[in-house]
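## retry 2 of 3
previous attempt timed out at serialization; input unchanged, resubmitting
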Amino acid sequence: MLSVLRNGTYRRLFTAQVVALVGTGLATVALSLLAYDLAGAGASAVLGTALAIKMIAYVSIAPVIGAVADRVPRRTLMAAMDLTRAGVALALPFVTEVWQVHLLIFLLQAASAAFTPVFQATLPVVLPAERDYTRALSMSRLAYDLESLFSPALAAAVLSLVSYEWLFAGTTVGFLASAALVVATALPRPAPVERTGGVYAKAAFGTRLFRATPRLRALLALDLAVAAAGAIVFVNTVSLVRDHFDRPAGAVSLALGAYGAGSMLTATALPRLLRRATDRAVMVRAAFALPVILAAAAALTATAPAAWSWPALLALWAAIGAASSAVLTPGGRVIRRSSADADLPAAFAARFSLSHGCWLLTYPLAGRLGTEAGLPLTAVVLGAVALASTVAAAVIWPARDPYLLEHVHPDLPPGHPHLADARPAGGGWRHGHHYVIDQHHHRWPEGSR
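## retry succeeded, writing output
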């Protein structure tokens, strides 16, 4: 899998992603301490609002950036967003009011919502070979998981020497380093965008692409299944470990680490697995495992802890991480297959926005149910959401999903360049090719859904 790093362009982009992720992880720890300094016992409310602001920025900003990404060179846009994030991180230690924290968090997350989809859309252009791109997706998954384990440890080491304000300095350095790496990277010129219309029309295109393409609708349903399972991990683990199992605070990190370990193991195995199985087979089967795991979690939390219960919880959390990684990691391949090269920024921006919309639904659901109804019922309800979403994905995404689709153009005039290989058919012109929604194809062919 590491062989993909021989590509110098990808190596610099991947390094930029890693250092930016480490900076983000340091900022997460520092922000928690800053919130405690400003709000004391109300720190949880400050952080909860910050999390909501993050999701709102992700859902609202990404489609707009996808619409204007073709007007700005990708390297310039990504570097500008890194510099914006560095500026926000540098300003955070100097805030004195909670509302200032919320404003800066919105700016920080808006910049991330602009950077990430453009970065994701650049990888297929840099790595056109399917095998290399699959390896890059697994590398990105590993980077996210390793960051969640490494950043807290690095933050703890820094805090043993200096005050938490210096963590923001580390965040700033990370984003500046990311910007420098991006600027030093020569990126291939993206294909020209042929769509017409203003920013709103272009912003809406990504959503229309998802709505019109069966496998992308299925991808969104699978994202909801992952969000349902992941929400119980990220929202309810603290109370589950501390209250149900009566474990010390350090055990929370161990449980979350089990989730990350499962995800990383799957990410390393996926490049080889996806050479033998289709994206649909891997993703749908992994998603069907999620409600089964949550049912086991419900049974586990409904009974009094025993000697085997704690290892069982760690195994279940690792299984959720593994299944989630098997669903999420190939998603880039599905989007690449379903979009014209020129539309990749809009497609990745739509996926970024819509998938975080799923988390915006499941996070509060897990929090409210966990508080008011208890952990067993929370696992049952979220498991039902995961099951319904997976069943919907399996129905929407045809098991036979070929690249080449025969279709008829009733609206294009004879002699149109797109009809070079077409033949007359009833009411139009028939031909077949790799089918995606674009300016010539507005809906999926009948009989192919």
